[in-house]
Design goal:
This protein has two domains: 1-56, no CATH class; 79-276, Vaccinia Virus protein VP39 (Rossmann fold, 3-Layer(aba) Sandwich), CATH 3.40.50.150. 40% of the residues lie in helices and 20% in strands. It has helices at residues 2-11, 17-29, 41-55, 60-64, 87-100, 119-127, 140-153, 196-201, 204-207, 216-228, 244-253; strands at residues 66-69, 72-75, 109-113, 132-137, 158-162, 178-183, 229-238, 256-263, 269-276. Keywords: Methyltransferase, S-adenosyl-L-methionine, Transferase. Residues 3-65 form the Release factor glutamine methyltransferase N-terminal domain. One of its GO terms (molecular function) is peptide chain release factor N(5)-glutamine methyltransferase activity.
Length: 286
C-alpha cells in the first residue's frame, strides 16, 4: 500500500513521493514500517485522507505536526514558517561562532532574531550547553510555538521575547554584550517565491523581506545586530543568494569590520557572517 501511495503522490507531482508516503504511513501506524505488522481499516482510511491532502500540496509537516532540524524534532503548526534544511548550515555557522566565543561565566550569549518556530534557538541551547539564549519573534502564533519547542527541547534554557527585531528597544539592555546574533529573517524579494506550496502555506510575514529586493528587514536586522554585539561578536544571517553583495555592504556600513558570504550544501550563497568591531583574527578574513 505504501508503494501505491508513493505512486499516487508521484503522479500528483510531489517532489519526494516515496519518502512522503513512508512518513505518512509511519505517522498513521505510530511506528516504523520495519516494526509494523499491518494496518487497520481505520488506519488505511486515515492514510488515504492524508495522501489526498498531500497531493493537494498541504505541507507534509502540517499533516504530521512535526518537523526536523539538526536532529531535533520540533512541533509544526499552520501559520508558522516551516524550517528549511538549508538553515541547518546557517545554524551550524552560528554554533561554530558560539564555541569560539571568548567570554566569561556564565557562558556565551546568543540572540536569535526572527526566531519563528524557535528551531535555531533550540539547536544552539542543545548543542552548546553553556550558552545563554534569547529569541525574538513578532508574531503571536510563532511566539507560542517557539516557547513550546524550546521549553520541551531545552527546558529553562531559552528566553523567548515577543518583539520586532528591527526595534532599538528590543533587548536594549543587552546592547554591546552579545557574543553571537543569528537570524533567519524574512528576506524573499517581492514575487520571487517559485514554489506554490510555500506561497500558499507559509505566512507572508515570514517570507517577504520588504521592498522589491526583499532587503528592508535584513538590513534592519544587520543594524540591530550591530548594536547588540560586543566588539568581536559575530552576526550570522540567512539570505537569498542574490543578496550577498548588498548585505556585505550593509554590514560594512553598520560597523562590522569583516563581512563574508557562506554557502549552503548546494553551493549557493546562503548567509552573511560578519564580525563586529576592532578585534582581529585570521579566521575572520575572507
Amino acid at each position: 500500500m505504501v508503494r501505491e501511495v508513493g505512486q499516487a503522490l508521484r503522479e500528483a507531482g510531489v517532489a519526494s513521493p516515496e519518502s512522503d508516503a513512508r512518513v505518512l504511513a509511519e505517522h498513521v501506524v505510530g511506528t516504523s514500517l520495519v516494526m509494523c505488522e499491518g494496518a487497520s481499516a481505520e488506519q488505511v482510511e486515515t492514510l488515504l485522507a492524508l495522501v489526498e491532502q498531500r497531493s493537494a500540496r498541504v505541507p507534509l509537516q502540517h499533516l504530521t505536526g512535526r518537523m526536523w532540524f539538526r536532529g531535533l524534532e520540533l512541533v509544526c503548526r499552520p501559520g508558522v514558517f516551516i524550517v528549511r534544511p538549508e538553515t541547518e548550515v546557517v545554524a551550524g555557522a552560528a554554533l561554530d561562532a558560539m564555541r569560539e566565543a571568548e567570554t566569561s561565566a556564565p557562558g556565551p550569549l546568543a540572540v536569535d532574531l526572527c526566531t519563528g518556530s524557535g528551531a535555531i534557538a533550540a539547536a544552539v541551547a542543545v548543542e552548546v550547553p553553556a550558552a545563554r539564549v534569547v529569541a525574538v519573534e513578532v508574531d503571536d502564533a510563532a511566539v507560542g510555538l517557539a516557547r513550546e519547542n524550546c521549553e520541551r527541547l531545552a527546558p529553562g534554557r531559552v528566553e523567548v521575547v515577543r518583539g520586532d527585531a528591527r526595534s532599538a528597544r528590543v533587548l536594549a539592555e543587552l546592547d554591546g554584550r552579545v557574543d553571537v546574533v543569528v537570524s533567519n529573517p524574512p528576506y524573499v524579494p517581492a514575487g520571487a517565491v517559485e514554489d506554490a506550496e510555500t506561497e500558499r502555506h507559509d505566512p507572508d510575514l515570514a517570507l517577504y523581506g520588504g521592498g522589491g529586493d526583499g532587503l528592508e528587514l535584513p538590513r534592519a536586522v544587520v543594524g540591530r545586530a550591530s548594536a547588540l554585539l560586543r566588539d568581536g561578536g559575530v552576526l550570522v544571517m540567512e539570505h537569498d543568494p542574490g543578496q550577498s553583495a548588498a548585505l556585505r555592504e550593509a554590514a560594512a556600513s553598520a560597523g562590522f569590520r569583516s563581512a563574508v558570504t557562506g554557502q549552503d550544501l548546494a553551493g549557493r550563497d546562503r548567509y552573511l557572517r560578519a564580525v563586529r568591531g576592532v578585534r582581529t583574527r585570521s579566521s575572520d578574513r575572507p
